């Protein structure tokens, strides 16, 4: 009975050691992640093999696994930049990014896990300062927001693409100007709108006046043509026709005496 504890103690110690080794060797990589293996007694960071995928893995306890999130991620950044005339502009932007999974080993070896702070953010800030510095506050406030968003993205992507990082998009969410500048721009825009409205009213009035002139000219031309076509003979024939129709009416009593200068009867009255 006394020997059992002596035999069981090494077994218990062995079991504990095995559990510790397995715990140290077991690596679980969650969904949307990948692992970079570091061989302590080998070549170091493994770059010539695909990264470790999702699931359960057993590695030598003296090796290490660095886990990276490979899903698309978003970072928000507030920046103070200068416009073309030296005014402070606050830019609120966000970036969609993810590591290049095929080159995850190289990313870890050359840049490291904090690639966001080392590469992405400094590059976005530099590109934003460069791009915004080309525009006036008025352009940034009104018509050029889409343009600066595109230019910041393109300039950032040129650098980031060579750093084993995939940059999907940069969004400019807000541009904040100094209050006095913003108010001045709004007043100017309001005045321009009122000026455009006034010009529109003038153009409309001019078109209406032109329409009236055209109609009046048309009527005048028609009267002139009609007057030129009404000869004395035509007028006399029309008068005879009208007199005949009036005389044929059963309800009319016509008295004719004398004649006018044209020889037409003169109608004095009817009942």
Automatic annotation (TrEMBL):
Keywords: Membrane, Transmembrane, Transmembrane helix. It is a single-pass membrane protein. It is found in: Membrane. Its main location: membrane. The keyword Transmembrane helix applies. GO terms for cellular component: membrane. Residues 24-189 form the Band domain. SUPFAM superfamilies: Band 7/SPFH domain. The chain crosses the membrane at residues 7-27. It comes from the Bacteria. PANTHER family: PROHIBITIN, PROHIBITIN 1. This is Prohibitin family protein. It comes from Winogradskyella ouciana.
